[in-house]
Design goal:
Elements lengths: L11 E9 L2 E3 L12 E12 L18 E8 L9 H16 L5 E7 L3 E5 L8 E2 L2 H12 L9 H12 L6 E8 L13 H8 L4 E6 L6 H10 L4 E3 L6 H13 L3 E10 L4 E9 L3 E2 L12 E8 L2 E10 L10 E10 L7 E2 L4 E8 L10 H23 L6 H18 L2 H8 L16 H11 L37 E3 L6 E3 L18
Parallel strand pairs: 1-17, 2-18, 4-5, 4-8, 8-9, 9-10
Antiparallel strand pairs: 1-3, 3-15, 5-6, 5-7, 11-14, 11-16, 12-13, 12-15, 16-18, 19-20
C-alpha cells in the first residue's frame, strides 16, 4: 500500500504492533470503579527508510529540496544579558542552524521580547527568505547585531511564526524557540500563550529550548506537548551550538511529515483516550469525524527513522457476551497522507477483549501500560520533591521521601538516564536524601528528564524470555512479560488488584505496599 510514488525514491516502511492483556472482568471490582473495564493497549509504531538511506519528506536526497520551512526564535529579553554569554551563545547556535539549512528552504529569524519582530528577512516584512549562500550570510549578519531589552511574552512570538508559516507549502513546518525566562509578561500580552497555542496547534511543530538559570521546565513542556515538539535545555551556554546542530540534522532527516492513527471501534466500544507515551507523554485529540463515521483519527507529526509508543484506552459492556472468547473492540491503522514519497503501510491490527470471571486473569496490565504508569508515578514524585524543596527546611523530610520514591521507581524502570538525572539531586548515592546547595535550575533539568520515557531494553542475545508472549501482543515476547503469580494483593487505598509480590500499587495511588522505599 503506498501513499504516493516518486519513481526510484526509496520507500518508507511503517510498522504497527498492538500489545495488550486481553482479559477484562465481567464483574467490576469491589469498589465498582469503571477503570476495571478499561482496555489499555499499547501501539508500537515505527518508521524506517528502505535501504538505510537518509531521505527527506519530499522523496529527494536529504538537503536537495525545499522539504522544510523553518522559523528560528531568539529570546532577546533583557535577562539574556545576565550574563551576556547567553546572548552570545544564542547567536552562535542560530548561525550554526542557518548554515545547515538546505538550498531552497524557506526560513526566518525572529526576535522575541514583549512582542516579536522579524530579524531576517527584515523588520515589518511578514515574509520568509529562501536559503542560499547570500541569504544565509545576510541572516547571520543580522543575528550578530542582535541586542537584548524588554520582557518575555512568548504568545506573540509563536503567533508571528504561525502567520509566517501559514503562507508556506513545505511538508515540514518547524519552529525552534530559545528562551531563558518564564513568560512573565503573559498577563500583559495582546496574544496570551494559551490563545497562541490554540491558534498554532496543528500548524507547525515546535521544539523549545532553555538556556541559563531561570527557565521554566513546565513552560517548555506545555508548549512542546501542545505543538508536537521536544523540550530540552543546556547546562552550559557553550553546549547550545552542538545541541542546535543535532536538532537541525535530526529535523532534516524527517521521513514522514505527518502520520495518523485511525481507530475504528466496534459497535458498543467507546474510545476514552489516546496518548503518546514514548519518547514522551503527549495527549492526542481526535480530528472531527465525518457524518456517520464511527472511526477517529489522531495526528502525530515529524517522524524520522524512529519508533514511538501510544496508549489507547477503550471501554465496552460485557452484557450478553460470552466469556473466554476473543472479541474485537476496535481496529487500528497507521495512515500517512500523500507527501510525494512511496510509503508501505501495515495491515490494520485488532484490539481484542476476552471477558473473564477469573480476577487473576485480568489482574495484570500489559507491561507497556505498567511501564507508563511507573513513569507517571516517577514524574509525580519529582514534582512533589521539588515543591517540598521550595519550602526549604520545612519541606526537607518530604523532599527526601519523594526523591527516594522517584529513585526506587527509576530503578524498577531500569532507565539509566533518569537514574543519572536523579542522582545529580541525591546527596550521597543510596541515601535518597536531597543534597545541599541545589539551585532551582537543577530541579528544572530533572523535571525535563522525568518527562522523557524509554521502552524496555531487549535482553542480550541468547537470553531466554521471561515467559510466553503477553496476551494479544503482536510484538516480540520476553522483556515486556510480567512475572507470574498465583496470588493477588489488594491495595488498601484504591482497591487495585495485582500480583502478591508487587512492591508498589499499580493503580491510581501508587503507594508502597511492602518493604521500604
Amino acid at each position: 500500500m503506498s501513499a504516493g510514488s516518486t519513481g526510484d525514491a526509496e520507500e518508507i516502511e511503517v510498522t504497527l504492533a498492538v500489545g495488550q492483556n486481553k482479559e477484562l472482568p465481567v464483574t467490576p471490582g469491589a469498589t465498582g470503579r469503571p477503570r476495571a473495564r478499561e482496555m489499555h493497549a499499547i501501539l508500537e509504531i515505527g518508521v524506517g527508510v528502505g535501504g538505510g538511506g537518509s531521505r527527506n519528506a519530499t522523496g529527494s536526497a536529504r538537503g536537495a529540496g525545499p522539504a522544510l520551512a523553518e522559523v528560528l526564535i531568539v529570546d532577546t529579553s533583557r535577562s539574556m544579558l545576565h550574563p551576556a554569554a547567553k546572548l552570545h551563545a544564542a547567536k552562535d547556535a542560530t548561525a550554526a542552524a542557518l548554515r545547515l539549512l538546505p538550498e531552497g528552504t524557506a526560513f526566518a529569524v525572529l526576535s522575541g521580547r514583549f512582542d516579536a519582530s522579524v530579524v531576517h528577512p527584515g523588520p515589518g516584512q511578514e515574509v520568509m527568505a529562501v536559503a542560499g549562500p547570500a541569504e544565509r550570510a545576510a541572516a547571520e549578519r543580522a543575528v550578530r547585531l542582535l541586542d537584548a531589552d524588554g520582557g518575555t511574552a512568548i504568545g506573540h512570538w509563536l503567533d508571528l511564526a504561525r502567520r509566517l508559516l501559514s503562507k508556506q507549502a513545505a511538508p515540514v513546518k518547524h519552529v525552534l524557540l530559545l528562551t531563558d525566562g518564564r513568560n512573565e509578561h503573559d498577563h500583559r500580552a495582546g496574544m496570551p500563550l494559551d490563545t497562541a497555542l490554540e491558534a498554532c496547534d496543528g500548524r507547525f511543530v515546535c521544539d523549545a529550548w532553555g538556556i541559563g538559570d531561570d527557565w521554566d521546565a513546565d513552560l517548555l513542556l506545555r508548549i512542546t506537548r501542545r505543538l508536537h515538539g521536544r523540550a530540552g535545555a543546556v547546562r552550559r551556554e557553550s553546549e547550545l551550538t552542538a545541541a542546535y546542530e543535532e536538532l537541525t540534522n535530526s529535523l532534516l532527516g524527517t521521513a514522514v511529515p505527518e502520520l495518523r492513527i485511525r481507530i475504528t471501534p466496534a459497535p458498543g466500544t467507546v474510545i476514552r483516550q489516546v496518548k503518546q507515551v514514548v519518547p514522551s507523554e503527549r495527549e492526542l485529540h481526535a480530528l472531527d469525524a465525518g457524518p456517520g463515521e464511527r472511526g477517529a483519527e489522531y495526528v502525530t507529526r515529524a517522524w524520522g527513522e524512529e519508533t514511538r509508543h501510544f496508549q489507547v484506552v477503550l471501554t465496552a459492556d460485557p452484557t450478553g457476551r460470552d466469556t473466554g472468547e476473543d472479541l474485537q473492540l476496535a481496529a487500528v491503522e497507521a495512515v500517512v497522507p500523500d507527501s510525494g514519497h512511496p510509503v508501505r503501510l501495515p495491515a490494520p491490527r485488532p484490539v481484542l477483549v476476552r471477558w473473564t470471571d477469573n480476577p487473576l486473569d485480568a489482574s495484570q496490565p500489559h507491561p507497556g501500560v505498567r511501564r507508563h504508569e511507573l513513569y507517571q508515578q516517577t514524574s509525580a514524585a519529582v514534582a512533589r520533591a521539588y515543591r517540598a524543596w521550595l519550602r526549604r527546611a520545612e519541606g526537607g523530610a518530604e523532599a527526601d521521601r519523594a526523591l527516594a520514591r522517584a529513585l526506587s521507581l527509576a530503578a524498577e524502570l531500569d532507565d539509566a538516564q533518569l537514574l543519572a538525572a536523579l542522582r545529580r539531586i541525591e546527596a550521597v548515592p543510596g541515601t535518597g536524601r536531597v543534597r545541599d546547595g541545589l539551585k532551582d535550575v537543577d530541579w528544572q533539568h530533572l523535571i525535563l528528564s522525568s518527562a522523557m520515557t524509554t521502552p524496555p531494553q531487549p535482553p542480550p542475545a541468547g537470553t531466554p524470555s521471561a515467559g510466553p508472549p503477553s496476551a494479544g501482543a503482536e510484538g516480540p515476547p520476553g522483556p515486556l512479560e510480567p512475572a507470574g503469580s498465583d496470588d493477588l494483593v489488594e491495595c488498601p487505598d484504591c482497591a487495585w488488584l495485582g500480583p502478591a509480590d508487587s512492591v508498589y500499587c499499580g493503580g491510581e495511588c501508587g503507594r508502597l505496599l511492602r518493604g521500604t522505599a
